[in-house]
């Protein structure tokens, strides 16, 4: 049996990935802020939500697609922007882009992606959104946004929940830095995981590809605290397409974003990687939905691990969901075959949950 066939859930993919990845890389992907209570709270909040089974409904024909900014998508979930995905496996960024193209779902392309943003939107056949971090005095940030616009991106996702990068002890213990600094501890780690080490060496060391441009410098640990509402107004004025703000957990903030012309809000605590004490997005979602109204687009990420989780989020007010770590676990476990298997597993979980709760269309989950 191949490794991909052993992926039956997000957790089984995670278990395989844990064995195959260097400890430093696994803990970078899997870790969270502080003592990781926030990550546990994300999961507990989702686990505490029940879905009500309904009986004797004809649910033999189910539609898992939905509409996002006027465009049809194959599923109500997409690919969250993630930095340095090629650490999970050589070519991971392109695997994700091909999956986005195949299923017509959005690929979030991170500021700190391992592959240039122009390459990824081409591979995703246009199904790509560019995620932007504010950096320094903002001049490089605007240049990067202009570059994304020139490359054909229609959606810009501004991440606002990282004024200072959270402390993640698992990374600190392993001495994780970008670029890598190789000491005795890291050398032993890589030596004990030869498949990853040799394949990564053959493909070339992953780097933050989008930052390699004149007039732009990016340090993933630097302060981003100078971003404010004027920063948002400047981006809104220059960006011709849709603008999404990611990292929102407060209803009043969401209302103001809507008033400022933001096209959608992504309710997220960054996978609990920044503020350990932040509330779970699924807990604050209903209040944010009430604040912005029934028709305003709301997206959600953080803590999602199954198709049932997606249905729970939709039932509480989300229009669309994004998975992050799950995809990297699948790639680390079994490459592109594992990634495709993970997509099928999540789709099957969602479809079965819809059938058992009497739904034939994703868009009816919020009814």
Per-chain topology:
Elements: H1 10-20, H2 23-30, H3 37-47, E1 66-68, E2 71-73, E3 77-79, H4 92-103, E4 107-109, H5 117-123, E5 128-133, H6 139-151, E6 155-159, H7 169-174, H8 184-191, H9 194-203, H10 229-238, E7 242-248, H11 251-259, E8 264-267, H12 281-292, E9 298-300, H13 307-315, E10 320-323, H14 325-356
Parallel strand pairs: 3-10, 4-5, 5-6, 6-7, 7-8, 8-9, 9-10
Antiparallel strand pairs: 1-2
Helix pairs in contact: 1-14, 4-5, 4-14, 11-12, 13-14
Please give a quick description of this structure.
Residues 2-367 form the FMN hydroxy acid dehydrogenase domain. By secondary structure, the chain is of the alpha/beta class. It is 43% helix and 11% strand.
